[in-house]
Amino acid sequence: MAKTKISEYSATSADNTDISNINIAEGCSPANVNNAIRTLMAQIKDLQAGTSGDTIPLTAGGTGAANATTARSNLGLVIGTNVQAYDANTVFDDVSATFTAANSFTAKQTFTGSSSVISSKFVNALEGVTVSATAATGTINYDVTTQSVLYYTSNASANWTVNFRASSGTTLNAAMATGESITVVFLVTNGSTAYYNNAVQVDGSSVTPKWQNGSAPTAGNASSVDAYSYTIVKTGSAAFTVFASLVQFK
Length: 250
Hints:
rod-shaped
């Protein structure tokens, strides 16, 4: 068979006796050598331009694909309409990247810098906020995978406990590794009779927060919105330190 593209060549040199039907077997015409070299150069250019139909496999540093969609699939990336989605195994390591379309990260991503390079920079960023016409009271489950800010717009009706978890089906202990932290905000509306957060839990277990200025609140602020900020640090298995603060907005 005539070898018309790179993929048709053999790894056994003795089997390569022609290039696109130009005879290069032992004893061939000297003129065939010149023609064969020129044809080989054209085939290499076709490979570079992507017109030969050949692909470079992943094991050789390529994508194993002739188009971008298949290339992303071979590289383990899931593509949606105008959305680039990265899976849990994606690691960005000392790479400067600019995303020009909407990008959806479906699991925790690791951006790794170095001792001399910052791992990430955000010119502007949005945080998820849940706004709910709910009155603070009882035990309130704060799912950190759902929002960064939780805003209750109805007047609190009693002091409350806030319980931090990843979600209804996942503990914060399972979602976080030791040495990681997460910061969330709880905005609570108070009417003329004010109430406050008097207990904190993580995954249903009580935690005594370390409050800004060293004192836990003993009352809420009437006719205002009280902003509670909590930085939750995982210090070990099912072990957390919570740093909390309260600021009044009126």
